[in-house]
Amino acid sequence: MEKQNVPELFGSLVFDDRVMRARLSDKVYNSLRKTIDENVKLDDEVAEAVAVEMRDWALEHGATHFTHWFQPLTGVTAEKHDSFITPSPDGGVLMEFSGKELIKGEPDASSFPSGGLRATFEARGYTAWDPTSYAFIKDHTLCIPTAFCSYSGEALDKKTPLLRSMQALDREAKRILKLFGKDVKYVRTSVGPEQEYFLVDKEVFDKRPDLIYTGRTLFGAMPPKGQELDDHYFGVIKPRVTEFMEDLNNELWKLGILAKTEHNEVAPAQHELAPIFSTTNVATDNNQLMMEIMQKVARKHGMVCLLHEKPFAGVNGSGKHNNWSMATDTGVNLLSPGDTPYENAQFLLFLAAVIQAVDDYQDLLRLSVATAGNDHRLGANEAPPAIISVFLGDELSAILDAIRDDKPYEGTEKVVMKLGVNSIPHFSKDTTDRNRTSPFAFTGNKFEFRSLGSSNSIACCNIMLNAAVAESLKQYADELEKSDDFEVALHELIKRVITKHQRILFNGNGYGEEWIKEAVEVRGLSNLKTTADAMPRLLDKKNMDMLISHKVFTKAEIQSRCEIMLENYCKTVNIEGHTMVEMVRKNYLPAIEGYLYSLAKTTSLMKSVSDKVKCNYEVSTMERLSELTDYIMDSVEKLEVALEELKSYDDIIKTSEAVRDTVIPAMDKLRGYVDEAEMLTSERYWPFPSYGKLLFSVN
Length: 699
Ligand code: ADP
Ligand code: MG
Known about the structure:
Blueprint: H1 6-9, E1 14-15, H2 17-23, H3 26-38, H4 44-60, E2 65-69, E3 82-83, E4 85-87, E5 93-95, H5 99-103, E6 104-105, E7 126-129, E8 135-138, E9 141-149, H6 159-179, E10 187-201, H7 202-205, H8 209-214, H9 239-254, E11 259-264, E12 270-275, E13 278-279, H10 280-300, E14 303-306, E15 319-328, H11 341-360, H12 362-367, E16 390-391, H13 394-405, E17 418-419, E18 422-423, E19 440-442, E20 447-453, H14 458-480, H15 486-500, H16 513-522, H17 531-534, H18 541-549, H19 555-609, H20 616-646, H21 652-680, H22 691-695
Parallel strand pairs: 2-9, 16-19
Antiparallel strand pairs: 1-8, 2-3, 4-5, 6-7, 7-9, 8-9, 10-12, 10-13, 10-14, 10-15, 11-12, 15-20, 17-18, 19-20
């Protein structure tokens, strides 16, 4: 591959601050900057001026089309390309792009899920420019990041509520900072999402209908070697994968995506890519782009990038870690322990706000990552559990205990700092040890939410997290603004919050059976194992009230989202079920039958030659395989019935419960028999490439 000048390459396809500053007049630039930083409404003249420069810049970079790029509730991004051309009177064309086209678009998008929000007569939602996320060029198209709404103003996408949740947090955090004597322009949340994925060879992939239709294998016996040797984790990256990663980095860098670290993951063929963190809505856009580009670049290298949470049974699935923090426009990280007692008190208050948020809205966090794919990780025997808890590490926990019990803190740090009459100890921030089994861990100056599935949009969990933390902060601001002695009130508040939310704090092994028991039975934490269990909690009054009061969602939006997510769950499993039926009836059963025929023929031929041959292998294999084909037949029929029955429900919650209770167990049973048959059948007869071929296909 040719050598790249990275600083030159970086962001070369992005209409970023550097480009804006260079190309826009001071007046236009300053006005746009105010919109970006302080959410001030953009006026039409400025939009017009920006559009002209954006068009010229895009044309210079080879673009011919533009699109409003948005994130409908399908989970993938959507775009509808329009070319810049307008006929000119002399019979030629002009390349035009107006301020109006920049600000607002009207995709004929009536087929996107709306969960009943749009009546068909007004099915055409509209898209609105999000100037806080830079426009970029992809495939000769100028992509303008936008929000997608219905004409009555209801959000039909993931960006709109995300921006609203960021505003809610901004508002409440600024109230708190004011109490500490700080007047900041804004508080924003930042996210660095670590993305896991698998790479398989395209030729092998193409032979697996389950991967093609569903993104995961629905059958497959374990190969002799899986991940038990831990020899893949951080291992030497194979040349073909290295080439892919280099190519991927270049493509991402051109789009201004801060791709930073990459390494092999635990399972064979599994890898991870982490960008440097950025503002949440930008990180969200970038993560969507990153997933798209990963898949595209993999194809170029003769591979397929699997973003499914559990492409292979028996080896680790893929997740995404949402590293989250809050920072001011002056660059102060509010989750960074400070150097002075006063700063520490402020840190502890923001920390308390997160702890309370995670406890009060554990169900919202859980359901924000719930999909059919992610159910294979959460609540199954894999990291992290479906129970949400917070890990703080020993030192920070000891400090909170000291505050809670009014005792002096006796940690590794000797100094006990004083705040007014109350002691709030100082501690070093680098001592947060890592607990990989915790779903929500404090890692020094940020929280890492680890329950996301690899294909999840990070928008969903950040909407809930921002809103829930905004709610804690609002309660604190309401209380502290009224207090006569701020320092005393602050200490009392922090003490009360950590006492009250003690149950959510857990530093132990999150995978252990004992924890599940303790969490549920002693602490009363919720353990929502599947999407069917989790999603309806969105409609709980406490959750609706909170989200509506912070103007993150309207009631109708919440109801529609719940419906869409459950529909998505049911449809996904339905497709998987039908794919299994087809593979079994058309391929597996005929293949086993072919092998049985060969065994039977061999046996009778051998016996006709000599009556001394016993044919033990042939006969016992035949007996077991024949038994298995009967079980397979029986299970496939049961699965068909379960799938058929889904059509009889007219309520989506009931349908999702039937998916959970009848379809998925029927699928599991069927798979068990087929996988056993695979181990007994000659490879020559087996219709699809084995797990061994899939997992070790990229060399
Ligand atoms: P790990 O040890 O879990 O692999 P790293 O320390 O490498 O994690 O960081 C993972 C991610 O966290 C990166 O994307 C990084 O940019 C991001 N990150 C670091 N600091 C912050 C912060 N203050 N806010 C949000 N994300 C952050
Ligand atoms: Mg991590």
